[in-house]
């Protein structure tokens, strides 16, 4: 009897996944700059070009607190000119996790003007959690004070996603059948 309950729960989980149910708390943790972290030698533009940022995700800045800090700015003009004189917030711990808790554009720059002007800055558009996968969010970074837009990665076609959902649904139904 106990094994039948376990199989039924597994079947329900597989079927829910096949129907596209999003789990509460599902989020992505992005370490800005990858293995190198937030560093003048990091190519932030390349790093961010294949990332999707959604409400509920978290971005992590890892850097040497003795040599660097990060400034969050309010406007695109401040971002493009590397003007950190009026920050929304400063991050100085060396490892800062920043929740992306709302839609919109966020601007992060190096507190060192020269590093910022050399491209150590990040401009992120945070997309809604429930937005369609076919939508391509915009992630932009700036190099040498000239903004460039990086295209988001493409997602599988609808037919591939439908086929995968169908297979998961069949597995769930098979599990239900074997329980009875």
Describe the structure.
This protein is α+β, with helices and mostly antiparallel strands and 180 residues long. 31% of the residues lie in helices and 24% in strands. It contains five helices and nine strands; from the N terminus they run αβαββαβββαβββα. The strands form two sheets. The chain has a six-stranded antiparallel β-sheet with strand order 4-3-6-7-8-9. A hairpin with a 2-residue loop joins strand 8 (139-143) and strand 9. The longest helix has 22 residues, at 158-179. It is globular, with a radius of gyration of 21 Å. The model is unreliable at 2-25 and 134-164 (pLDDT under 50).
- Morphology call: globular
Please provide the count of β strands. Answer: 9
- Name the poorly predicted regions: 2-25, 134-164
CA-CA gap between termini? 11 Å
- How is the largest sheet built, in terms of strand order? 4-3-6-7-8-9
Q: What percentage of residues falls in helices of 4 or more residues? A: 25-40%
Main sheet overview? 6 strands, antiparallel
Arithmetic mean pLDDT: 73
